[in-house]
Design brief:
mainly alpha, V-type ATP synthase subunit C fold, 3 domains, 16 helices, 65% helix
């Protein structure tokens, strides 16, 4: 089977799975549901039911959401020609697990307790293997550059006890690994999408750093290379009020997302709105793939849409427990697939 035929088959499988995704009517039913129990009953009528069990369902929705996303990753691995397209999505969960295990190891050294409850099966590296490697400090067989990054993380912790520096090193390694996977697929659209994700993360980081009073020199270390926007351009935004960021970024695709968010409230409202717009921007980068019958970007579009669906469902379920206004919940929701 040729590469085009293989992706043609994969896209056909994806088209068959599209009806499983939530549509506007299902989201509306969730929004209208009577409390968490009512919302969980609606979830139980969908593919997410596989992670729900009995009376404890209302307290275990996170497990149900993770189970459905993991099942989607595993199903895609059975028919996607290049597993790197799936691993691009699983990488952030691998690096989340690495952060959690490192922090547990550091806590244990100072008399604290280890945390296993925040580990996730969504990564591509088995948790048991990762745990053994990190606890024994045997990193040589770990993939994605972790064999080189982890010794640097441990050294940074031993010298300064600065967990922010450890996270910075790991975040840099994450995006380098994502770029490497995208390049291995050898499709420009896939590479450009990963670059768009890097730009989105850099813009998010920049706003947070500005809030905490960083100057351009201090912020530089937290920006990742490989995006479509030169970090030097982003650093030039630091002295500017947020209202001017869209003008500076007008020549970049991500600039439109920045411009749509108005600084008309507090920082918390601003960052939440910006994160939503940037997630929607990443989705929009894949929109044209829907018109192709053999484009690898269809894999990215479905998996990103699934992740945004999980994020939307989680947002609604949390709102049922906190009594958040429905209009506010709608404002937080991402665009669907």
């Amino acid at each position: 089977m040729s590469r085009g035929e293989a992706y043609g088959y994969a896209v056909a499988r994806i088209r068959a799975m599209e009806p499983l995704l939530f549509d506007a009517a299902q989201y509306q039913r969730l929004l209208d549901a009577d409390g968490p129990v009512g919302a969980i009953k609606i979830i139980g009528e969908t593919s997410y039911a596989r992670g729900l069990t009995g009376e404890e369902s209302a307290e275990r929705y996170d497990s149900a959401l993770e189970a459905e996303l993991l099942a989607t990753f595993k199903e895609f691995l059975t028919f996607v020609p290049d597993r790197a397209l799936v691993d691009i999505f699983r990488l952030p969960y691998d690096f989340h697990n690495v952060k959690a295990l490192l922090k547990s190891a550091f806590n244990a050294r100072t008399g604290g307790r280890k945390r296993w409850d925040i580990l996730t099966e969504l990564g591509s590296i088995p948790i048991d293997d990762l745990t053994v490697r990190i606890e024994s400090e045997e990193y040589s067989l770990l993939p994605y550059g972790l064999s080189h990054i982890l010794p640097s993380c441990v050294s940074a912790w031993e010298q300064s006890r600065d967990i922010v520096e450890v996270e910075r090193l790991l975040d840099g390694g994450l995006f380098e690994a994502m770029l490497d996977l995208a390049k291995s697929v050898d499709e420009q659209g896939v590479l450009n999408w990963v670059r768009a994700r890097i730009d989105s993360e850099n813009i998010r980081n920049l706003l947070r750093l500005k809030r905490f009073g960083f100057d351009s020199a201090g912020a530089a270390a937290f920006l990742h290379g490989g995006g479509m926007i030169d970090p030097a351009v982003l650093l030039s935004l630091m002295p500017e009020p947020y209202d001017g960021w869209g003008r500076v970024l007008a020549h970049f695709d991500a600039g439109a997302a920045v411009s749509r968010v108005l600084d008309d409230g507090g920082f918390d409202s601003l960052i939440v709105s910006l994160e939503r717009e940037l997630d929607d921007y990443c989705q929009s980068r894949l929109a044209l793939a829907r018109y192709s019958q053999d484009s690898p970007e269809n894999v990215l579009a479905y998996l990103w849409g699934k992740e945004m669906e999980v994020k939307n469902i989680r947002t609604i379920l949390v709102s049922k427990g906190t009594g958040t206004d429905r209009d506010e919940v709608r404002r937080l929701m991402r665009h669907g697939y």
